[in-house]
Design brief:
- The chain has two domains: 81 residues, no CATH class; 31 residues, no CATH class.
- It is α+β, with helices and mostly antiparallel strands and 116 residues long.
- It has two helices and five strands, in the order H-E-H-E-E-E-E.
- The strands form two sheets. The protein has a three-stranded antiparallel beta sheet with strand order 1-3-2, with no helix packed on it.
């Protein structure tokens, strides 16, 4: 999978197309040798953002890797000044029929159940 992503980055960058690659800050993707090699071949800029500032359901800090320096301006497009209050990677939403939908990493939040 990483090799395919790197191939797409190379192809798009060679055409002058801006590329943005999002990775959670906890990801080990940046340690993959192909990614490290790409950093020696292309000029890549990195910005950090929290998806909660863009109406994400959790704080989720991410790294944004881009072929353009304007990625550092991503903070100008934040849609809120407050991060959501979420301690989990799981969100619970009550559907229109009253049932509860749970999304995210259930194994990290075993205290949540699908039934009420």
């Amino acid at each position: 999978m990483a090799a395919r992503v790197m191939l797409l980055v190379y192809a798009l960058a060679s055409r002058g197309i801006m590329v943005v690659l999002e990775q959670p800050t906890s990801s080990l993707f940046q340690m993959i040798p192909r990614f490290q090699h790409m950093l020696t071949r292309l000029t890549i800029y990195r910005a950090q953002a929290c998806l909660g500032y863009y109406h994400g359901s959790s704080k989720k800090p991410v790294y944004l890797y881009s072929t353009r320096s304007c990625i550092h301006d991503v903070h100008e497009f934040a849609t809120t000044k407050r991060l959501p209050k979420s301690n989990d990677l799981v969100t619970r939403v009550t559907r229109y029929d009253g049932s509860v939908a749970v999304t995210g990493a259930m194994e990290t939040c075993s205290h949540l159940t699908l039934e009420q």
